Amino acid sequence: MPPLAAVPDLDRELDELYAKPLDEFTKARNDLATRLRKAHQSQAAEEIRGLKKPSVVAWAANALARTHPDLVGELLTAGEELREVQQRALGGDVEASSELPAAAAREREAIKTLVTAAHRELGARASPATLDRLSQTLRAAAVDPGRAAMLAAGRLTEEWQAVGFGPLEMVEPRPRTKEKTREDMRRLARERATALRSEAKRAAAEARAADRAADDAERGAARLRAEAQAKAAEAERAALELAAAEQELERKG
User: Fold this and answer.
1) Within 10 A of 83 (CB to CB), how many other CB atoms are there?
2) Which of 40, 105, 140, 152 has the most CB atoms in a 10 Å sphere around its CB?
3) Could you give the CA distance from residue 83 to residue 85 in angstroms, rounded to a whole number?
């Protein structure tokens, strides 16, 4: 029997595997490994057998990549554009600094649209905590080009935690002369404080809106209050980071 006679297209088989309902993943993975072994592909069979079953959040992200590739593409484009703007801003481009809020807003809107779509995909599994972790995973994909490729392929096995408030931490500053170092540090501190202030205001507004919705709702009050608490916690985290950034700015000033 020629190699891979039982598995003519392993890449296609993997796409189908990650597209399976979550409760069917383990059996389908083991069946694929068995067919590979019978096709005399022992090494590939072992690699497939070792594939980790996706978490609920990873499965939801994979589902989005397949059912809404256009929305995922918009997120990854927004993330790439935001990284490019931030790179220019760190390079001293004053115009790029003014473009940062709009670029960050496009990324947030893309994430919000995807999370809304995922709410329908997840059904009863769409708890506030799960959706929040999905949002973090999507943001992490927008931050990191390597993770962006994994999301686009729809083959995540685990969720990710976004770092900070976006891809600013992923941008590598260009070399500076010693004369400019102090001024650059002050400018970067101001930009970060501005971003944190905007994020804190947004999170606080969402927390208030969610709290009002919880008070008004006759059904699902417990779920809405949980969302309000999550947003309030996010606002508090943002406020703490803002305070730290402002202290750092004051120290460097």
Assistant:
1) 21
2) 140
3) 6
